[in-house]
Amino acid sequence: MTELPSVRGAEVGRRIGVGLMYGLWRPRVLGAWKVPADGPAILAVNHSHNIDGPMVMGVAPRPTHFLIKKEAFIGPLDPFLTRIGQLKVDRATTDRTAITRALGVLEHGGVLGIFPEGTRGEGDFASLRAGLAYFAVRSGAPIVPVAVLGSSERPGRLVKALPPLRSRVDVVFGDPFEAGDGSGRRTRTALDEATERIQKQLTEHLENARRLTGR
């Protein structure tokens, strides 16, 4: 039987994350009350900075288990990320262990965090992978869109993957929505249709978040 990630560990990670994020940047959190208070939920987060995961982990109202690329589990980070309930995933293959553990989180009423774009990029939800649709349709868990909007890049900065220290970072949670069409179908066509619905919802949320924050 596949071991589930630790909920207690994820809560420890949440407390560490909130301390670090408020210590290094100035988070402004909007709409956190929209995250369901209990039951399974999937946080779908745009990804443009390396701090997006720790930021959402810290400011989310519930402990969150993020699917994180295995390349991040290096040196002392490996046991640390595992202890705080995060999920290692091999993006180069169909990682059945990661899939089983992620579904287990949702089946036990937990919160799963996903970067649906698959990797750090423009953070505009332009290219979604099918993984998010699969988890949402398979589990029936609602998706909560999350937009992380950091400061714009400054020319000549050495660490371009991070927003400037002490700059404001907005985290905007959106309204939960269902990805499936209610039929329960899990065919390739159904997942493709769900991915289209998800992309539309996430893009709309990002546009609303930008208008709301002026970013």
Automatic annotation (TrEMBL):
SMART domains: PlsC (SM00563). One of its GO terms (molecular function) is 1-acylglycerol-3-phosphate O-acyltransferase activity. Pfam families: Acyltransferase (PF01553). GO terms for biological process: phosphatidic acid biosynthetic process. Keywords: Acyltransferase, Transferase. InterPro entries: Plipid/glycerol_acylTrfase. It comes from Streptomyces cupreus. Residues 41-151 form the Phospholipid/glycerol acyltransferase domain. CDD domains: LPLAT_AGPAT-like. GO terms for cellular component: plasma membrane. This is 1-acyl-sn-glycerol-3-phosphate acyltransferase. SUPFAM superfamilies: Glycerol-3-phosphate (1)-acyltransferase.
